[in-house]
Specification:
The chain has one domain. The chain contains two helices and no strands. The longest helix is centred in the middle third of the chain and has 60 residues. The radius of gyration is 31 Å and the shape is rod-shaped.
């Protein structure tokens, strides 16, 4: 019985190994793509949250074109 079982398993492996490997590669590739997308979304959220104060500060410091010169900051009365 063991010899027959071993022979059937080896025959099954010989016939289906390529299909099994292709399925495994496809599953791994799909998981990698899902992980990549999840990491990109997580990094985007962290970066956007981290740069939010910088963006707000830039809006606060924004001066209309023609209304400011570098000398104004030097000679400003504080």
């Amino acid at each position: 019985w063991l010899a027959v079982d071993k022979a059937v398993i080896e025959l099954d492996e010989a016939l289906n190994r390529d299909v099994f490997e292709d399925d495994m590669h496809a599953a791994i590739t799909a998981q990698q793509q899902q992980l990549k997308a999840a990491l990109q979304q997580a990094y985007a959220r962290v970066l956007n949250a981290g740069f939010a104060p910088v963006k707000q500060g830039a809006r606060t410091l924004a001066v209309p074109v023609g209304k400011f010169t570098p000398a104004d900051s030097v000679f400003r009365d504080y």
